[in-house]
Design goal:
alpha+beta, 2 domains, 3 helices, 11 strands
Length: about 210
């Protein structure tokens, strides 16, 4: 058992620091629609994983952690709607498109709203997302890009007229904490192994 604990500790110390890299939580900040509604909440992306899957080119990944709410405004066709986990896709472009001026696209799709219409929120990014976080403005120069759609009619939309994404690392356990937990678990196992067993008494024959 001692040998097992020592091997585990040495393995943890030998791991590179970037093996514990944190994903980034991107929070929608001051995102506003033309009808006075707003969008708030966050998505979580692990860009290191995304870029490792598609080195040197454009790439896409499903967004698993989503908590975004688009609130209603003056346009009564758009009631307040929340986009949940598993309803998003992020596409990263190798370079900005001349026609779109965008480095990436976040697409959130939801089920049917109260009126029976599907909803979709599209957010085009005016700068690349960084694996370290930071501030990324939303493309608002083209009112046909960053929009929320309702139903299958492309004309049933409301444009995003302002806002940005603010990214910060998601807190994860530090390597030293993980090492201490592993050592503690190993020591507890050794103590249990060393603990003397109660003597077994043999009942006399009657």
């Amino acid at each position: 058992m001692r040998r097992l604990v020592l091997t585990l500790v040495l393995a943890l110390f030998s791991l590179p620091i970037n093996a514990f890299g944190a994903p980034i939580r991107w929070t929608l900040h001051d995102v506003r629609f033309g009808d006075g509604g707003t969008a708030s909440g966050h998505i979580v992306l692990d860009l290191d994983v995304l870029r490792a899957q598609s080195p040197g080119g454009s790439s896409r990944m499903t967004i698993d952690d989503i908590a975004v709410t688009a609130s209603s405004g003056r346009d009564s066709a758009f009631s307040t709607r929340t986009y949940h986990e598993g309803e998003g896709l992020f596409a990263e472009y190798l370079e900005a498109s001349d026609s779109l001026g965008s480095y990436g696209l976040i697409t959130l799709r939801s089920g049917f709203d109260a009126s029976g219409s599907p909803r979709m929120l599209m957010i085009y990014l005016a700068a690349p997302l960084s694996a370290a976080g930071g501030v990324v403005p939303i493309v608002i120069s083209n009112r046909h890009l960053s929009v929320e759609y309702r139903g299958n009619d492309p004309t049933a939309r409301r444009a995003i007229v302002g806002g940005q994404l603010v990214g910060s690392p998601v807190t994860i356990p530090e390597p030293t904490v993980m090492m201490l937990l592993a050592v503690g678990a190993g020591c507890a196992a050794i103590r249990r192994q060393r603990r003397p067993r109660p003597s077994q008494e043999v009942s006399p024959l009657t």
